[in-house]
Protein backbone atom coordinates (compact mmCIF):
# COMPACT_ATOMS: atom_id res chain seq x y z
CA UNK A 1 0.00 0.00 0.00
CA UNK A 2 2.93 2.33 0.54
CA UNK A 3 3.24 3.04 -3.19
CA UNK A 4 -0.27 4.55 -3.34
CA UNK A 5 -0.48 8.24 -2.57
CA UNK A 6 -2.99 10.01 -0.36
CA UNK A 7 -3.25 12.43 2.55
CA UNK A 8 -0.48 11.73 5.06
CA UNK A 9 -2.84 11.50 8.04
CA UNK A 10 -4.92 8.85 6.23
CA UNK A 11 -1.92 6.51 6.16
CA UNK A 12 -1.79 6.57 9.96
CA UNK A 13 -5.41 6.11 11.02
CA UNK A 14 -8.99 5.49 9.90
CA UNK A 15 -10.20 8.30 12.17
CA UNK A 16 -10.08 10.98 9.43
CA UNK A 17 -12.37 8.80 7.29
CA UNK A 18 -14.79 8.38 10.19
CA UNK A 19 -14.70 12.10 11.00
CA UNK A 20 -15.39 13.18 7.42
CA UNK A 21 -18.15 10.62 7.09
CA UNK A 22 -19.99 12.02 10.11
CA UNK A 23 -19.34 15.63 9.10
CA UNK A 24 -20.86 14.93 5.68
CA UNK A 25 -17.92 15.96 3.49
CA UNK A 26 -16.38 12.55 2.84
CA UNK A 27 -17.23 12.58 -0.86
CA UNK A 28 -15.75 16.06 -1.43
CA UNK A 29 -12.60 15.18 0.49
CA UNK A 30 -12.10 12.05 -1.63
CA UNK A 31 -12.64 14.04 -4.82
CA UNK A 32 -9.98 16.57 -3.77
CA UNK A 33 -7.58 13.76 -2.87
CA UNK A 34 -8.07 12.10 -6.27
CA UNK A 35 -7.34 15.42 -7.99
CA UNK A 36 -4.26 16.07 -5.85
CA UNK A 37 -2.67 12.61 -5.65
CA UNK A 38 -4.28 10.63 -8.43
CA UNK A 39 -2.47 12.26 -11.37
CA UNK A 40 0.89 10.80 -10.37
CA UNK A 41 2.82 7.92 -11.96
CA UNK A 42 1.03 4.91 -10.48
CA UNK A 43 -2.64 5.36 -11.38
CA UNK A 44 -4.91 8.37 -11.40
CA UNK A 45 -7.85 6.25 -10.29
CA UNK A 46 -6.36 4.81 -7.08
CA UNK A 47 -5.54 6.69 -3.87
CA UNK A 48 -4.90 5.65 -0.29
CA UNK A 49 -7.64 6.69 2.16
CA UNK A 50 -6.67 4.62 5.21
CA UNK A 51 -3.88 2.48 6.66
CA UNK A 52 -5.28 -0.57 4.84
CA UNK A 53 -7.71 1.05 2.41
CA UNK A 54 -7.56 2.17 -1.21
CA UNK A 55 -10.17 4.19 -3.08
CA UNK A 56 -10.95 3.74 -6.78
CA UNK A 57 -12.70 6.39 -8.85
CA UNK A 58 -13.59 4.55 -12.05
CA UNK A 59 -16.60 2.39 -12.85
CA UNK A 60 -14.45 -0.16 -14.69
CA UNK A 61 -12.64 -0.96 -11.46
CA UNK A 62 -15.96 -1.49 -9.66
CA UNK A 63 -17.02 -3.95 -12.34
CA UNK A 64 -13.82 -5.94 -11.90
CA UNK A 65 -14.13 -5.97 -8.10
CA UNK A 66 -17.83 -6.82 -7.87
CA UNK A 67 -18.27 -8.94 -11.02
CA UNK A 68 -18.84 -12.33 -9.39
CA UNK A 69 -21.59 -12.22 -6.75
CA UNK A 70 -20.67 -15.72 -5.62
CA UNK A 71 -17.04 -14.84 -4.92
CA UNK A 72 -15.96 -15.26 -1.33
CA UNK A 73 -15.20 -11.55 -0.93
CA UNK A 74 -16.19 -9.77 2.26
CA UNK A 75 -16.92 -6.05 2.15
CA UNK A 76 -14.53 -4.01 4.25
CA UNK A 77 -15.57 -2.40 7.51
CA UNK A 78 -15.42 1.05 5.91
CA UNK A 79 -18.75 0.22 4.22
CA UNK A 80 -20.26 0.85 7.67
CA UNK A 81 -19.23 4.50 7.35
CA UNK A 82 -21.21 5.11 4.14
CA UNK A 83 -24.57 5.54 5.85
CA UNK A 84 -23.33 6.30 9.34
CA UNK A 85 -24.64 9.85 9.32
CA UNK A 86 -28.08 8.57 8.27
CA UNK A 87 -28.29 6.30 11.32
CA UNK A 88 -29.08 3.11 9.40
CA UNK A 89 -27.39 0.87 6.86
CA UNK A 90 -28.65 0.74 3.30
CA UNK A 91 -28.53 -2.26 0.99
CA UNK A 92 -25.24 -0.91 -0.42
CA UNK A 93 -23.51 -0.68 2.93
CA UNK A 94 -24.64 -3.96 4.52
CA UNK A 95 -21.55 -6.13 5.00
CA UNK A 96 -23.24 -9.45 5.73
CA UNK A 97 -23.86 -11.29 2.45
CA UNK A 98 -27.05 -13.00 3.68
CA UNK A 99 -28.53 -9.72 4.94
CA UNK A 100 -27.72 -8.08 1.59
CA UNK A 101 -29.38 -10.97 -0.29
CA UNK A 102 -32.48 -10.70 1.90
CA UNK A 103 -32.79 -6.94 1.38
CA UNK A 104 -32.21 -7.29 -2.35
CA UNK A 105 -34.93 -9.96 -2.58
CA UNK A 106 -37.39 -7.74 -0.70
CA UNK A 107 -36.64 -4.64 -2.80
CA UNK A 108 -36.28 -6.19 -6.26
CA UNK A 109 -40.04 -6.32 -7.12
CA UNK A 110 -40.22 -2.54 -6.69
CA UNK A 111 -37.54 -2.11 -9.35
CA UNK A 112 -38.91 -4.48 -11.98
CA UNK A 113 -39.62 -2.95 -15.37
CA UNK A 114 -43.39 -3.14 -14.89
CA UNK A 115 -43.24 -1.59 -11.40
CA UNK A 116 -41.09 1.27 -12.67
CA UNK A 117 -43.47 1.88 -15.59
CA UNK A 118 -46.40 2.02 -13.14
CA UNK A 119 -44.60 4.74 -11.18
CA UNK A 120 -43.59 6.77 -14.23
CA UNK A 121 -46.56 9.16 -14.01
CA UNK A 122 -45.62 9.96 -10.39
CA UNK A 123 -42.19 11.13 -11.50
CA UNK A 124 -43.47 13.43 -14.23
Automatic annotation (TrEMBL):
Gene3D superfamilies: Cytochrome P450 (1.10.630.10). One of its GO terms (molecular function) is oxidoreductase activity, acting on paired donors, with incorporation or reduction of molecular oxygen. This is Uncharacterized protein. It comes from Glonium stellatum.
Amino acid sequence: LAKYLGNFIDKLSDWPLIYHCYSGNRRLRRLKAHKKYGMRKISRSIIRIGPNTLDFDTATVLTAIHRDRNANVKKGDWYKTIDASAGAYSIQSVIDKHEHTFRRRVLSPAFSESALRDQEQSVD
